[in-house]
Write a structure and sequence with these properties.
340 residues; alpha+beta; Lipocalin; 2 domains; 15% strand
């Protein structure tokens, strides 16, 4: 997986559910010590050992994958539950209208009260109280089923991303071992173990190296919904650096492109694989067979993909295995993700 050394970039807002939150903790501080009052222990404290090139690469790369977790798992889950919040309010509104039409005063009032309560608190109880009205319990049951599906979706996305990250690190570990850079390979192996611990814990709880903070409001922790926050546009996160000489080719696109990339167009759901070879050719594999192919070449800041049957696509450099921009015919903007 030579494209493992290409750059990775990602963005988006947070969700604060305690089991599912993705947390990046930035810790800063300063210590002012007067020279006259400095203790021997402080004065004699050894300076922190500088990080090796490999340690820096692991740290920078991890930032990108943590950002990917935030985008593809945390933010995707937040978007899904935000839709469910609106759906629940719509269900309540329809239920109020139905109860009113049936002259069910008690039911209509109970549903209206639930509608106001949820609008104010965004708290959704995991279980109903004995005194809750039957019509309210019925409406909540519909939402609980949707919340369970949203959680299954979140867990599936987290596991899929973990598999990609581990494959990324496994490739680095194997190549470093072959190059007899055993200490560096051990560092990568340790990172793999660390990632597996934090990304595949109970419920695939979190990404990164720190436990998630406790929520400010215990009620929202049980609701399945994030607390109400202002929408802001986050700054783009730092992208990971190219691997420090793990391969002689470094970030050479002629080397990075080799492998199977899946081209896709979100507007209609189309996707198709391209198997790029080091000799400048590629094939289109499908169900164990090849249904076409062509040639590729680097030209300026693009890789020109020319099909044997006519037509061209342009992959914009630098290559990003998690999502490279592809320009197709008539200015169609697609995406290519490296599979292996």
């Amino acid at each position: 997986m030579l494209a493992a050394w290409a750059k990775l970039g990602i963005i988006a807002p947070m969700i604060t559910s305690p089991r599912f939150i993705f947390s990046l903790l930035l810790v800063s501080g300063s210590l002012l010590v007067a020279q006259d009052s400095a203790t021997p222990a402080a004065a004699d404290a050894p300076a922190a050992a500088p990080q090796s090139e490999m340690q820096k690469w692991i740290a920078t790369t991890d930032e990108g994958w943590q950002a990917a977790f935030k985008r593809d798992v945390t933010d995707a889950h937040e978007a899904e539950v935000n839709k469910l919040k609106l759906q629940y309010l719509n269900l309540l509104e329809e239920a109020v209208a139905k109860a009113s039409k049936a002259s069910d005063l008690d039911g209509a009032v109970a549903l209206r009260n639930e509608q106001k309560r949820f609008s104010d608190t965004e708290f959704f109880p995991e279980t109903d109280e004995a005194g809750d009205a039957a019509v309210v319990k019925q409406t909540r049951a519909a939402l609980r089923a949707l919340l369970m599906q949203a959680e299954k979706n979140r867990t599936a996305r987290a596991k899929a991303l973990l598999a990609k990250y581990d494959a990324f690190l496994a490739d680095a570990q194997a190549r470093l071992t072959k190059a007899q850079r055993l200490d560096d390979a051990l560092l990568v192996k340790g990172k793999r173990e660390e990632v597996a611990k934090f990304w595949s814990g109970p419920g695939v709880a979190t990404a990164g190296n720190a436990a998630p903070p406790a929520p400010a409001n215990p009620a929202t922790a049980q609701s399945g919904f994030p607390p109400r926050t202002a929408t802001t546009k986050p700054a783009a996160p730092a992208k990971p650096a190219v691997s420090p000489n793990i391969a002689a080719t470094g970030g050479d696109p002629k080397s990075a492109i080799v492998g199977i990339w899946r081209f896709s167009w979100d507007k209609n759901g189309w996707n198709e694989a391209r198997d790029f070879k080091a000799d400048g050719t590629f094939t289109i594999p499908e169900n164990g067979k090849e249904k076409g192919g062509g040639k590729w070449e680097v030209a300026g800041n693009k890789i020109i993909v020319t099909y044997s049957g006519g037509g061209k696509d342009e992959m914009v450099l630098p290559l990003d295995p998690s999502g490279t921009k592809v320009l197709g015919k008539r200015g169609r903007e697609m995406k290519a993700v490296k599979e292996k």
